[in-house]
Design goal:
14 strands, Aspartate Aminotransferase, domain 2, Aspartate Aminotransferase, domain 1, about 45% helix, binds 4'-deoxy-4'-aminopyridoxal-5'-phosphate, four-stranded antiparallel beta sheet, alpha/beta, 2 domains
Length: about 425
Amino acid sequence: MRLDTDPYLARYAARVRGMSASEIRALFAVASRPEVVSFAGGMPATSALDMEAVEQVAAQVIRDHGATALQYGGGQGRAELREQLATVMHHEGIPGHADDLVVTVGGQQALELVARCFIDPGDVVLAEGPTYVGGIGALVANQAEVRHVPMDADGMQIDALEEALAVLEREGRQAKYVYTIPNHQNPAGVSMSVERRHRLAALAETHDLMVLEDNPYGLLDFEGRTWPSLRSMIPERVIYVGTMSKTFAPGVRTGWVAAPRPVRDKLVLLREAADLCPSNLTQMIVETWLTTQPWREQIKRFTNVYRERSEVMLAALDRAMPAEVAWTAPQGAFYVWLTVPPGIDTSDLLAKAIASRVAYVPGRGFYGDGTGGDQMRLCFSYPPTERIDEGVDRLGELLHTELELVRAVFGDTTPPLRARSSQRGGSVGG
Ligand code: PMP
């Protein structure tokens, strides 16, 4: 049997045949070595959790409700948990009722179930460019055609969305939905302005559009501000996805989707076909966490950690980066989105970066169309501040060296690119 080809290839379903692990995955195995400062994974600072409290909660669930916790449950998720998740939504000013919610295995399963619910092969989904890798994955796995709408410091450019809708209309097609991460977007680190949210909602009405509103980071604003949700504006057109991964812990794999009732019913059927039901054990841990612990305080503790780390990263970037490099300045969550000058390819550069003991995610992963080669995502949520300084210094040094190489080859023709962080935002997308 040849090892360089897959002998099962002809047998796979069409939607699986084109799937392959990227070479980048192999590099990330190296990036997890302790000497490498990794800005790659979007990992919450779980060490900032009150572990004694978590231990108490987990012990209480087993001690008081062990037999139920270790049993199967219903496909929609526990009503008691859904009540609590609605409270989490209300804390952010988002309307939600326990009956409208389906508990999922993280937000990721919600994205996949929604794609499976709506997408036939070739259907178009409009998504911010760049957007969440796992969101693209869920769409591509269901054979959607992803069309990107560019962003700037105020999120998705609604003029560009309007243009994309006009193009679709000319083609006689209709987007199945618009996928957006309006708050502290992954990977761009920007939020959609209130005015644009209203414009998006109005366009959804005039163009008969559904919107998938993915909101893992809304409660992680550095100043504790919240933004008006699309769900509050056009509830019958919005499928809303939430998760406890960033406000509690990704290890409990607890997310949810809030959808209009008919859609909710389909999602329950789809999830039962996939995995029967969410884990009662982790649902009850989350439920008990939310009913017995000061979870709002814990969120503040997380955001304080992230604010400090973002400040350290932005200061380090200012200090270490060549003048031609631009980046966004986040107001919450985990991410800085960086743009490098022409001539440098962030996918090609990754191996060198890892050899220099620093890792990031190359920009191409955040687009479905192969663009983004001049961009990268830096995640500051996980490494402690002194490691952030070290990592940015290493990356800055590498980019200085690369730029010298580019100049040696092309001459000094690379124009100073775009705004630096002091101008908040910089350029984000396309
Ligand atoms: N949406 C976005 C935008 C994300 O960044 C993530 C996690 N990185 C998710 C959804 C899914 O997270 P989880 O499955 O852990 O809830």
